[in-house]
Amino acid sequence: MRIKKAILTGGGRATRLRPITLTINKHLIPLANKPMIFHAIEKAVEAGIEEIFINTNPGETQLQKSIGNGERWGISIKYFEQTGGPQGIAHVVKCAEEFIGHDPFMFYLSDNIILGSIQPFFEHFEKNNLDCLLAFAKVPDPERFGVPVFDAQGELVEILEKPSKAPNNFAQTGIYLYGPDVFFKAFEHAQKSQRGEYEISDVHTYLLKNGFRVGWREVTGYWKDTGKPEDLLFTNKLLMDELGTANFTRRGTSNNQTTVKGKVDVGDGATLTNVQLEGPVIIGENCHLENCVIGPYVTIGSNTSVKDSTITDSLIFGNCTLEGVKLKQSIIGEQARLIKKENGFDRVLLSDYTVVE
């Protein structure tokens, strides 16, 4: 029972990541200078997925323009809106029923980052002829997630959604595999929770209590739900570490006062003058850097200008202007201007939800 279809999430408001997500879909935030959802798509393709269906916010256009129809990955990608407004992630799956039909499928939360392949999950699902396979990971704060409950024999018997006191430190991650019709049969019995949402944990509990073959595997490598700014920065570091040296090439131009240490990628059309680079660093196309110290763990989006600055462990989006600044563990959104004056005063124009430390 090979799985060839997948549903990926592309909706939501990501309020914990404001102000960045006021102007960009969370799933397009660049990690290792690549939109977050691209990492999910690549994992799915590697596992054998041929058709992907992505849910979007009403009126969404950013995702479609950035991702396209899947041609770049050799697959088909289509989009659908979650009808009736946000009603929980289980409802996202229900809205895709017409695309899935009677086929087995994967549901993948695209703001979850996992290192390594998800192929072993597919192999375990098929080998054991399961109706559903769940992926769990050990976390320090399981109360933020769906938490599995095991009986005295160690058998999985229930999933609790965001319990006030978790029975263990396992969390239900955003990777779910389902056999034909299984999810939709369970959803018929689902009721909205006190939060007004259809909880996917309730779907899985129904399957567990009604004789369906539900298995689970632990994510032993790195897994992260990128819900907070610090999660983005940490995940960006791990993704950059995971990239092989073949992913780092220097295609721009630099003068003889520019020094490079470690893995550094420089995009076409970029110019570097008197710059110290300590990798891993990724610099986008047509950037201009002058009199700077950059890295480690810095990504800079295309068409950004950086002068007289020191930046480390930061995400800099495209089309920015930075002059005379020292940044660490920072996220600078698209088209931002950050210029340090020499007159002793700072002049700022800050939008809602901005954080300055």
TrEMBL record:
Residues covered by the Nucleotidyl transferase domain: 5-238
Organism in which the protein naturally occurs: Candidatus Magasanikbacteria bacterium RIFCSPLOWO2_02_FULL_44_11
MF-aspect GO terms: transferase activity
Record protein name field: Glucose-1-phosphate thymidylyltransferase
Record-linked Pfam families: NTP_transferase
Keywords: Transferase
Domain of life per record: Bacteria
UniProt cross-references to InterPro entries, sorted A to Z: G1P_thy_trans_l, NTP_transferase_dom, Nucleotide-diphossugar_trans
Record bears the keyword Signal: no
